[in-house]
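hiii, so i know i said id send this last week but things got crazy w the move. better late than never?? heres the sequnce for the chain we talked about at the cafe, plus the structure i predicted for it. fair warning i was half asleep when i ran it
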Amino acid sequence: MTDHSSSADGAGEGWPSQQPVPPQLSAEAARSQVAAAWVRVAPQSNVPPGQVAVPSLPPRADRPAGESKKEKREQAKAERKAEYERKRAARKAEYESKQAARASRKGGGKVSVPATSAEAAAPTAGAAPSAAQAAPAPARSGVKGPDARFDVPRPGGRLPSNGRSTHVALRATLLVTTCAFALGSCGVTGLVIGRSSVSVKPAALDDKDLDRYRLTDFPVQSAAVFAEEYASLCMTYAPENTDKRRESLARYISAGVDRDCGWNGKGKQQVKQANWDGTVEELPEYGKNGRYLNIQVTYTGGRTTTLSVPVYVKDLAGASGLRIVGNVGEMPLPVRDTAPALEKSEEVVDQELSTQLKDQVLAGYFKAWAASDTTALTRFTTPDATPAAVSGLAGALTAPVVQEVQALAPEGTEVGKKATYAQGQAVPARVTVVWGGGGADDAKAEVALKRSYRVTVVNTAQGWFIKDIHGGVMDPTGGRADTPSPASPTASPTVAPASGASAPAAPAAAPSGAASPASPKPAASAPAH
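okay and structure toks below
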């Protein structure tokens, strides 16, 4: 190897010159010098004969010096994208050719397939497309026919500018149409409802209905009170009160009415009570402002009669301006008729239950009920008993004696057989109670009052308990007591015999008034009233 220790430039041994390269050297000469310097400083090794170690040279100057890895990746990406676009354009061209062939077969002619923009932009073989060439060509607006592009948005994407405007216009049209239809429907519905409500008219009653149900604008109650006062004054008279009576009557009557109300000034008479009997008759001369009212008058001597009094009312709404506008007329009392007999042949009285209730339940109950003993009443009444059954008389009557009980057997019970009752079954019973005297009044001590009741008893696991009580019991005989009538058989309920006992024989008829209030009657006979 050549020794560089005695070099003319005076540089250190083993290192190349540190002075700048002369500008007249070419690039190739500079590379040669660098290679020689590298050989001089490289460590020596045993090299076989005929072989020389050739060092690797620096890169050539024709390669771009600033190219980096990022640029390489971008270039590779652009190449892949260009390849994808080329394949896509090829598939599209193939599809369009197939469509054209199909259309030509259907139409019987030939259709030319123009070259698409993708095919024109496809890169040639062996050429490296750039990033600008790989980018898809923009859509050409305003072009129609086969050369026009139709962009289909990806799922979830937006339509192109022209398609989006069309979609917005369509939605706006649908919204306006829907609103107009809704408003029209509401208007039609309101018109129908309004017209139907206007067309419905309240039901009108004719004169017959008004008379039948006594529906009128005439203030009947106020006019009846006015007529009762006048009738009481008219039928009460005495010679010593003639002037005062005439002055009082003048405040009620009109100018042409008799001021003495038909009295000749002799005799005496006193009215005990005067009440309107509910009868109303129209006064034709005054139309809806006048009525004839019947007033029932009872005198102190006991006689009762009816006066027909004509009454005029000026203000119907305010019930004012009342006046007696005519002379009164005395009429007979309302016609009284006989009451029909009740058919009770189908009733069956459970004599066994009647005796049990009389001795074990009703005797103690009426005693507690007379005194309103709430503690004792709980022993005889059900938890859901009515207020009448648990309130009592508060001492108004005392010393109750249960005289007769008729407990009715369930429907379908045959005569002569024992009645059966289900748990919780209610049974009606007719009860006659004689109340004795008592209280602070001594005259009350000898008074005995007979009263009748309708009692409802319920069968429970602990026995019979009272649920409800009402006053009054119907008379099955009917007819009338003020006129003698031929004797007629009275329908009496059938008595079911007690368990293990035969039916009792019918009792002999007793004379009227022979039985005392406290004496009990057989259960088979009709209850006393």
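btw The chain has eleven helices and eleven strands. thought thatd interest u
miss u guys!!
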